[in-house]
Amino acid sequence: MSDDLLKKVISHAKEYGYIFPSSEIYDGLSATYDYGQNGVELKNNIKKYWWSSMVNMHEDIVGIDAAIFMHPKTWKASGHVDAFNDPLIDNKDSKKRYRADVLIEDHIAKIEAKITKEVAKGLKRFGDDFNKEEFLKTNPNVLRNQAKIDEINDKMRDAFNSEDLGNIKALIEELGIACPVSGSKNWTDVRQFNLMFSTEMGSVAEGSNTIYLRPETAQGIFVNYLNVQKTGRKKIPFGIAQIGKAFRNEIIARQFIFRMREFEQMEMQFFIKPGTQKEWFEKWKETRINWHKALNLGEDNYRFHDHLKLAHYADAATDIEFNFPMGFKELEGVHSRTDFDLKAHEEHSGKKLQYFDPQENKSYVPYVIETSIGLDRMFLAIMSSSLKEEALEDGSTRTVLKLPAALAPTKVAVFPLTKKDGLPEKAREIINELKFDFNCLYEEKDAIGKRYRRQDAAGTPFCITVDHDSLNDNTVTIRDRDTMQQERVLINDLPKIIGEKVSLASLLKKLESREAAIV
Ligand code: ATP
User: Fold this and answer.
1) CA 179 to each of CA 90, 151, 252: distance values in angstroms, whole numbers, following the listed order
2) Dihedral angle sign, alpha carbons of residues 193, 199, 200, 204
3) What is the Cα–Cα distance from 287 to 516, expressed in whole angstroms?
């Protein structure tokens, strides 16, 4: 069922110019994708939503755009050279390679699914009287399955914390996890595999000419912390935001744009006074979940997943998970990273990265709260939750991509009813007025009904039809993608009607009032 949805999303994304396999004429390159004519618009709109809300709406956050190549010592300091590894395991029969932790997490997801099923049964049995929280605390089947999950999580955490790869393999065997392809339990040992791509750079001093494609954008922010703080005369707390490409040689790269080898991140590092990390961590958790929920993709589609396996430098970490077609998976991370990164860069560079706090009258290395979201995963979250098959009253169905209007690639499609009588000219006239504010599309081919359907499937929030009356009374028919309601309106009123629904400003205002409500 969910596999079906993912397949539908993939083919829809291709058919409507959102995403193509990379270098497709050569049969594609695994885990790399190209964004097409509509995809690039949606992606840019997601970036604008993130950037405006994080940078423009927060006086204490500024942005940068650092290079993808960084001095190789950066990655030694950050720990990526020594520890940016995934535990890899191969199935000897299918020759397929897996991440050992993902195999165990998928096993846990199956047990979680049993709990969800039990809850659904309870809801059916007790109807309105059903108390989910109570049920989760008392139902014996739920409790048994939850205990299993807790036990597996404990064992996995212990094995990872002690870096005991043997115990991870033992856990896979103990749980009887089989290869999804061959069904066999014939596994190799677990090995560590570094995820960084490396290449050579000619001009770097002898002996250190291996250079890496950055596996995260965050380090570009850390190494510029002092530049921005000093030139921007920033006082703590303040943040630095960045959007950019990151590269990881993922062991298993499947599930479409969920896990790619080249992807984009939108990250923000918030520099704070040591000791205040707990309250800022909570604040950023709230701010970020609110940002997601303002898009109306469904409140139930999100959940927090606190990390059991904390990185040694983190003192708190959570994932914002989204209900993707493959189930709940990480969409964004919120991490309390202490002063680990700045201190490490101080040590490796020999430069001080401190802040003089005038109130405290002393210098310290700031602590950091990080919010890190994958742009491509955000894209997938939006596409997969927006794609709908709707049954219509006349018994037919329509495919509609109910993208948040402010993010839709094309905002308005303008159709002349016929190709003659001056209607195309009138339609172009309207576009010439609207095009400064809204991305418009002109279409004159096929019957109007067919044109509507095509725009529904492409995600265009409004269609405007110009007919013979338009020439006399300056009115047009405007049709709403979601309700399919048609209204006769004055051409002069179009910017206001359209703007209210599709402008980024109206989405940002909605976000701001949601934020005000939680403060
Ligand atoms: P995962 O556990 O899924 O590998 P991660 O914990 O390694 O993810 P982070 O290092 O926290 O991810 O990266 C921050 C964000 O970047 C993630 O929440 C995700 O949205 C995105 N991201 C990470 N790896 C990829 C990838 N290979 N393809 C697409 N997006 C990614």
Assistant:
1) 9, 22, 13
2) negative
3) 11
411 near 361, Cβ under 8 Å?
Answer: no
- Output the CA 222–ligand 1 centroid distance in Å: 19
CB of 321 within 6 A of ligand 1: the answer is no
Backbone angles phi, psi at 234, to 5 degrees: -85, 140
Q: Which two tokens stand for residue 381?
A: 């979250």
- Span 392-505 CATH architecture: 3-Layer(aba) Sandwich (3.40)
- Which of the listed CATH numbers 3.30.930.10, 3.30.450.20, 3.30.1540.10, 3.40.50.300 matches domain 1-71+195-386? 3.30.930.10
The predicted pLDDT at position 161 comes to: 79
| 403 CB neighbour count, 10 Å cutoff | 24
Mean pLDDT calculated for residue range 221-232: 97
Q: Measure the CA–CA gap between 141 and 146, rounded to whole angstroms.
A: 8
Residue 337 beta carbon below 6 angstroms from any ligand 1 atom: no
Ligand 1 center from residue 127 Cα (angstroms): 39
Q: Do domains 1-71+195-386 and 392-505 have the same CATH topology?
A: no
What average pLDDT does the segment 199-227 reach?
85
Beta carbon of 259 within 6 Å of any ligand 1 atom: yes
Q: What is the pLDDT of residue 162?
A: 81
479 sits in which H/E element: strand 475-480
248 touches ligand 1 (CB under 6 Å): yes
Mean pLDDT of the chain: 94
Cα–Cα distance for residue pair 330/305, rounded to 1 Å = 8
CA of 215 to the centre of ligand 1 (A): 10
Q: What pLDDT, in 10s, does the model give residues 406-446?
A: 999 999 999 999 999 999 999 999 999 999 999 999 999 99
Torsion of CA 279, 285, 287, 288, to 10 degrees: 160
What CA–CA distance (Å, rounded) separates 430 from 478? 12
How do the domains of the chain map onto residue ranges?
1-71+195-386, 99-177, 392-505
Nearest to 18 by CA among 36, 32, 43: 36
- Ligand 1 pocket check for 374: Cβ under 6 Å: yes
- What was the pLDDT predicted at 1? 45
Can you list the alpha helix ranges (DSSP code H) found in 350-503? Answer: 375-386, 423-434, 448-458, 468-473, 494-502
Which tens digit of pLDDT belongs to each residue from 332-362?
999 999 999 999 999 999 999 999 999 999 9
Ligand 1: distance of its center to the CA of 246 in Å?
A: 10
278 Cβ contact list (under 8 Å, min separation 6): 316, 336
Residue 333 Cβ inside 6 Å of ligand 1? The answer reads: yes
**Is the confidence at residue 205, as pLDDT, over 60?**
no
Band (209; pLDDT cuts 50, 70, 90): confident
State residue 30's pLDDT score.
87
Tell whether ligand 1 has an atom less than 6 A from the beta carbon of residue 217. no
State if residue 377 touches ligand 1 by the CB under 6 angstroms criterion: yes
